[in-house]
Amino acid sequence: MTDLVELEKRGVIAHLTLNSPGSLNALSDAMLDALKARFEELGADSSVKVVVLKGAGKVFCAGHDLKEMQRGREAEDKGRGYFTDLFTRCAEVMQMIPTLPQPVIAEVHGIATAAGCQLVASCDLAVAAEGTRFGVNGVNIGLFCSTPMVALTRAVPRKVAFEMLTTGEFISAERARAVGLVNRVVPHEELDAATNQLAETLAAKLGAAVKVGKRAFYEQIEMGLAEAYAHAGAVMTENMLYRDTAEGVQAFIEKRKPDWAE
Description:
By secondary structure, the chain is of the alpha/beta class. It folds into two domains: 5-203, 2-enoyl-CoA Hydratase, Chain A, domain 1 (Alpha-Beta Complex), CATH 3.90.226; 207-253, Lyase 2-enoyl-coa Hydratase, Chain  A, domain 2, CATH 1.10.12. It has helices at 29-43, 66-72, 80-99, 115-122, 146-152, 158-167, 173-179, 191-203, 207-221, 225-240, 243-253, and strands at 5-10, 13-18, 50-55, 104-108, 111-113, 125-129, 133-135, 171-172, 184-186. It is globular, with a radius of gyration of 20 Å. May play a role in fatty acid biosynthesis and insulin sensitivity. Belongs to the enoyl-CoA hydratase/isomerase family.
């Protein structure tokens, strides 16, 4: 049986592939469960330093499975319980990404729409192929993308997010890069190589420093300025006391490669 979310390890880099091309990698109930299980697996795997998330087939991810959602209306409560559970579980999966110890890079092609765009916005970094389109298009069918809005408004400027949410229009990969939704845009044939190069750059850093830094990054964003500085200062103090950080600083001073224990 084919895994809905395939896992391939290339050394210290884990590649996760949404593997339901026939449904445009829709975030069905089963897909969300599979993605959650993979994130839990990788979160406990100290040998993995970077995670790459991609989609099989023609697109990255087309959002929720609308046919499955319509079937949820057949319940006695017209779907209220099902929809509540679906959006709660999806939110839990999205929130797992910033809490993973490893940086997560979205490798995006084709389209990333609605909850698929939410998935890109939730990742720490994103590399997109030229020609990729991004949208939160639910408003076009009468469903405002309220949960994708949470991740989107934390990734792009407010007016850009509101325009995307209310017009339902796509933006190009180049526009997505300009507004901060993705980091890099490359020719389609170079997408895998460019994403791997970025992943390898991150993987070459001291893993313990990246781990503590990622956690502090998301923690300080939610704080006021003074609290954020106090928290970040405490984190840096602890980081400076790591054996490998002391070695890294000394190696820089001595103009040599650090001898890290990791």
